[in-house]
Amino acid sequence: MQMEKRNNLYPVFLKVKNLEILIVGGGNVAEEKLTFLLKSSPDAKVTIVSPMYRKGTIELAKQFGIEMIHKKYHKKFLKRKHIVIATTDVPKINIQVYKDCRKRSKLVNVADNPPYCDFYMGGIVTKGNVKVAISTNGQSPTTAKRLRQFFEEVIPENIDDLVKNLNKYRRTIKGDFEEKVETLNEFTKGLIGKKKLKNDQD
Fold first, then answer.
1. What is the pairing mode between strands 130-134 and 123-127?
2. CA distance linking residue 107 with residue 119, whole number of Å
3. For the chain, what is the mean pLDDT?
4. How far apart are CA 75 and CA 69, in angstroms?
């Protein structure tokens, strides 16, 4: 009996303003990755290296203060970088970026090539302090896109007000951590219309 495949990826939310990100390439895919990255994290610290850039990429880089290096990729550009995204239309270069990153313990994503990715850039929904990340395990970006659109519709615009108010309320609760969690769990059960929630955590 064949076991059902599952998504074993571990989601994290990175403070990219504290990290150095390198995008290799200046074409359509580079612009797409940069656009989504800056949409989610406008304070991201990004450098792009490419011998050519699309007009839209140049405008975006100027708007957000992104450093642009007008040169071909070389491993020297990996110095002091934490995360690397390879987006060129030359597979050989992208795979070389991957190999160079693996040797230097850099997290790397080769666009549209799951075997050469340490992480995927999934669909993201942001409503104030609330952020939902969606992954299809690199199998279907289109499905992630549709799920993102769905959650953008169903998550209410005032969810951020709720989060802020609950944070204020949490500070007024007496007792230790476990007591606070229990109180907040009871208080918020009605939000999703269920009487019992398992593995609740604040």
1. antiparallel
2. 7
3. 87
4. 13
Rg (CA), the chain: 20
CA–CA separation, 148 and 151 (whole Å): 5
On the 0-12 / 13-18 / 19+ scale of CB atoms within 10 A, 163 is: middle
The pLDDT of residue 9 is 92
d(CA 59, CA 189): 46
Cβ–Cβ < 8 Å for 87, 27: yes
CA-wise closest residue to 83 among 33, 42, 125: 33
Structure tokens at 63: 């708007």
Contacts (Cβ under 8 Å, ≥6 apart) of 76: none
Rounded to whole angstroms, the Cα distance separating 62 from 76 reads 24
Of 30, 29, 9, the C-alpha closest to 21 is 30
Tell me the two tokens of residue 42: 């406008």
Give the tokens for residue 110: 């080769």
Q: Using DSSP, state whether 17 is helix, strand or coil.
A: helix
Encoding tokens for residue 195? 């009487």
Tokens of 104: 């230097």
State pLDDT tens for residues 41-86.
Answer: 999 999 999 999 999 999 999 999 999 999 999 999 999 999 999 9
Under a CB-based contact definition with an 8 Å cutoff, are residues 84 and 20 in contact? no
